[in-house]
Amino acid sequence: MATSVETAAEHERILREIESTDTNCIGPTLRSVYDGREHGLFVEKLDVRIRNHDREIEKMCNHHFQGFVDSITELLKVRGEAQKLKSQVTETNRHLQDEGKELMGSMEELQKCRVQQRNIASTIDKLSHCLPVLEMYSRLQEQMRAKRYYPALRTLEKLELTCLPRAGQYRFCSIMAENIPKLRTQIRDTAMTQLRDFLESIRKHSDKIGETAIKQAKLQRSLDSSVSSQPRGLFGRRNRKEAAVTDIDGHGGSPVSEQDSGILDVDDEEEEEEDDVPGAQDLVDFSPVYRCLHIYTVLGLRDVFENYYRKQRRKQARLVLQPHSNMHETLEGYTRYFNQIAGFFVVEDHILHTTQGLVNRAYVEELWELALSKLIAALRTHSSYCDNPNLVLDLKNLIVLFADTLQGYGFPVSQLFDMLLEMREQYGEILLKKWNITFRQVLDQDNFSPIPVSTEQEYKHYTSQFPLQDPDLDKLPFPKKLPFSEFVPKVYCQLKEFIYACLKYSEDLHLSSTEVDDMIRKSTNLLLTRTLSHCLQYAIKKKNVGLAELVQVIINTTHLEQSCHFLEEFISNITNVPPDSANATKLYGTSTFKDARHAAEAEIYTNLNAKIDQFLQLAEYDWMVAAPGGGTPEASDYLMDLIAFLNSTFSVFTHLPGKVAQTACMSACKHISTSLMQLLLDPEVRQISMGALHQLNADVKECEGFARAGPVAGFQGDTLLLAFSDLRQLLELFTQWDWSSYLADYGKPSCKYLRVNPHTALALLEKMRETSRKNNVFAQFRKTDRDRQKLIDTIIKQLRNLIAQQQA
User: Fold this and answer.
1) How far apart are CA 348 and CA 255, in angstroms?
2) What are phi and psi of 87, to 5 degrees?
3) Phi, psi angles (nearest 5°) of residue 616
4) What is the DSSP letter of 325?
5) pLDDT by residue (tens digit) across 611-639?
6) pLDDT tens-digit profile of 199-215?
7) How buried is 559 (Cβ within 10 angstroms: 0-12 exposed, 13-18 middle, 19+ buried)?
8) What is the model's pTM?
9) Element (H or E) spanning 83, and its range?
């Protein structure tokens, strides 16, 4: 019973679910019915439920049936009216269609016009984007043809970044986009080619640029030598050029100049006024550098360009700094070398100040240090080959001008001036060599005789060349003679010329007056003590120099010695340094001329003695001649000639200082006495007779007569006779045979034969003994001869004992 109730409840639930559920979802419900076992019962319940619903539908229809009939009746009425309305609408539509055909035609035309208008607007819009592209591409082509590459690159950049994206996807746009990298490469390569041409051009013409810069510096210095050329003379008009250079990091236009690179035409430069020297911007078109810098900056390759430019300029610097092998031969070689270096750094300085970072100060200073080291090394090497002082002086002036030029651009040049001071020593050596030749020529051309002066004009001419101060000579009437020869004024003038030459080198070296004065004095001292001294020694020592020439040399050096203080004053006047300054170097001219005079005096003594020797070589004594029977023998002919020569010679010595003439005379007399003594004691003369001694005694008396006559003034009493005293006492001892006095008084101050040496007497006595033995070999039985021989032997023995006592 409970089961049937549950089944009925389940069926009731299913029926409600069927009634309330969408027919699409009824399948599972029915499935559950069929899965159960009571589906028959469910069908019965379903039929009952259907019947209930049918009864309810029927009730509802019966309730609404009359209203439905009324509605149908009204609907039939409405259908008639609808047929009428339809006919009217159809007629109206027909009339409307007939009337709207014209409007439809207009509308269709309007539609077509609107489509055309829309298409035109679209086309205009597209063309508004495409035309700028085409115009810009056309402008790009024109710029490329005109070689205006930087504007072309800017146009290319705008075309790529702005115009092409707006234009859209068109075939011509694709072609343009494909050509853009090629055009960039072409612009870059072309700019680099122009840069290479520019670098090659300035390498070839750097000497012209440097010449212009140096000329500008020279002009500036000539305008005001006291003002250093601080302004950048060569680029005095640089502002105009800088105004033309755009900011490479900005978006300005291209550089003003878009012409080909290279050196501009300056053929008419020589015709310009001297005060209008062209600047570098007038000689060089720098636009290839600016253009290439801008182009590489826009391309993002600035570092590549900077590295390439600096590398190439370093290579060019090494080429410029390499001197020619024959540069030292002419000034033109040095000038071209300095012009090239100056031109190189003028260009670099211009690049430094007209570009932003292409080169920096550190890079330029590095190049300058390299240039200084190589330049100084080259100058030291090549200047060492130079032996022309004028060339060295011109080179010095060129270096100073070069240094002033580069200093005007801010480059340190102290090393160049230090090198010039080093070259000063070399210049001094070259001057010394030149003046050595000059002095020797003056000496060779001099006639070593006093200068004859006939007129007042001639006298003033010589006194203007040499500071002669002789009041006695001034009072003498014309014609008269100056005491010195042509050598003196010529040497004095040459000394002044040398001082001027030294002063010329010291100019423009930025030295103080004291330093210049010191340099000149040291160089002059070298000239005096080394060059002039050697030349004087050469003139004195050379062959065939006569006594008269030597006498004149002494007179000349005496006057030159007296003129040394005038040279001191001359140097002080040109250097404005007082001669009594604490640091002033004194001239050694006095000692130089004194040494030369002493050498000439010694040479006079030597030559005089040599002349005397020549006369003595003519002496032909017969050492075995017998003693004269009566009277005094005459002096030898050679000795008479010698005395005559000495008298004529000493007459020339009147202009010499008294002591020199006296010394020469005393030296000559001593030399004669010594030479005659040597003739007596000559080992080759083994035998001497008394007759030979008498002849020699007559010659000595002649010499004593010469000395007593006083050939040279200034001797007191018989001072000159003392030169012959040794020989006189020796001859008197033998001719008077006063051996007893000699042996008895020997060693006493009152001895009559104090100057007779026992050795000399012994040697001469032995020669007489040999003569006596030979003459008396057959007369040995004569008592007188035997006694004389014994006496000689006894005297010889006593002399030997005397000598032995002295030695003991």
Assistant:
1) 19
2) -65, -45
3) -65, -25
4) T
5) 888 888 888 888 787 776 656 778 888 88
6) 888 888 888 888 888 88
7) buried
8) 0.65
9) helix 39-145
